[in-house]
Amino acid sequence: MSLKYGLLGLLNYEKMSGYDLDKVFKDSLAFFWQGQTSQIYRELTAMEKSGWIVSEIEVQTGKPNKKWYTLSPQGKKEFMDWLAAPEGAVEDLLHVRSSFLMRLFFAGELPPEHTAAMLQKVRAACAEALENMSSVPGIVDNYQHMMPDAERSRYWRMVMFFGEGYYKAIARWADSMLWLMKKQAKKEKKK
Amino acid sequence: MSLKYGLLGLLNYEKMSGYDLDKVFKDSLAFFWQGQTSQIYRELTAMEKSGWIVSEIEVQTGKPNKKWYTLSPQGKKEFMDWLAAPEGAVEDLLHVRSSFLMRLFFAGELPPEHTAAMLQKVRAACAEALENMSSVPGIVDNYQHMMPDAERSRYWRMVMFFGEGYYKAIARWADSMLWLMKKQAKKEKKK
DNA sequence: TTAATCATGTAACACGTTACATGATTGC
DNA sequence: GCAATCATGTAACGTGTTACATGATTAA
């Protein structure tokens, strides 16, 4: 659902090809929405058919031709309508979907050591994710030229803060679950 | 991917019909994995074809017939293999996917008041979600009979703690973003 | 009398994932 | 010589979503 609108949003900043969109998408939106290259091309074809975007081909020599996409007035309207639409927008953020938690739910079928090891991996993954985040401000700066004004990137930073808070929350949770398991293991031994 | 295994996991506790599974699923697993009723029936049909589960029909009068599903040895094996499989299990928890954040990213196209209102709704939704969570321990107790032993539900509680931490983190984030926006609005006025 | 519960699904469509295809140019 | 970059996709399959169908019984 959102992939479409992500692409429209980027095209609203500037004219781009599918290839460009793929890269910019992965640099900016991929933190909260993942899309395969093949899917991006499919959506672009579909949106052109709907008249939301318009393409023109630039013939290149030595390289494959480039297909430049531009937002049509209708596409801009669709984007703005989606952006302002309130339906389901808020609930969505609280929505969790995770196969890790599914495994944890059934973890009673395995020895506790297995789960403890997984939680430790979660801890490590959080630490790594938080470290990797230090490169994001640089990326934001690199894209400053694309944004019509500086205020635009304020929201990008808000999304970043969300990521930070999220990773930290998971780390804290994993720590306290590990502590809980240790306590429980001691109790078991006494018996 | 996980829906299948969620159903197997529940059938590992006890024999159930699609209808039962649908309800139990929504009471327990739906916090971290959503599945429509129609999807559940589809997966059950598919898994029976694969030989992971076996069905027997109970003829009822006054009510529709019931189709009881049991885990086959192969199904149990598939479940245990999935449960212990480490591939991608951890990364998955750190994975974010949210159309709310997509909208926030592009929020510069709208007046800041619009975004502030959305953030306030997020705050309210977190508070509500945390309140609703108080009923979960009761649900866990209700299902105690299904679990082979008390330790099994320890992991259910861990999942619950995750939810709590998650909602609290979002609430804190939303608060600080609102504070940030207020500060910024004052600056704008001065100019 | 109206809604909820019991119990099964089918059909169609939208979206996500994986694998594959092509082929020149540039940097190590 | 080999990998990466540039640039386009198609095909097939898997999963998620929405709408619809049936029809008796029971509780408010």
How would you describe this protein?
The structure is a homodimer of 191-residue chains. With 191 residues, chain A is mostly helical. Chain A folds into two domains: 2-93, Arc Repressor Mutant, subunit A (Orthogonal Bundle); 98-190. In chain A, 66% of the residues lie in helices and 7% in strands. The first copy, chain A, is built from nine helices and three strands. Chain A has helices at 2-13, 18-28, 37-50, 73-84, 91-94, 99-105, 112-132, 136-142, 152-190, and strands spanning 16-17, 53-58, 66-71. A three-stranded antiparallel beta sheet of chain A has the order 1-3-2. In chain A, a hairpin with a 7-residue loop joins strand 2 (53-58) and strand 3. In chain A, helix 1 crosses helix 4 (73-84) and helix 2 crosses helix 3 (37-50). Chain A binds a DNA duplex (28 and 28 nucleotides) through residues 1, 3, 17-19, 34-39, 41-43, 45, 60, 62-67.
Quick overview of this protein structure:
The first copy, chain A, is mainly alpha-helical. Chain A has helices at 2-13, 18-28, 37-50, 73-84, 91-94, 99-105, 112-132, 136-142, 152-190; strands spanning 16-17, 53-58, 66-71. The first copy, chain A, is 66% helix and 7% strand.
Count of runs of 4 or more consecutive helical residues of chain A: 9
Question: Largest interface by residue count?
Answer: A-B, 73 and 72 residues
Mean pLDDT of chain A, as a whole number? 94
Q: Specify Rg of chain A, calculated over alpha carbons.
A: 22 Å
Quaternary state, please?
homodimer
Structural class of chain A: mainly alpha
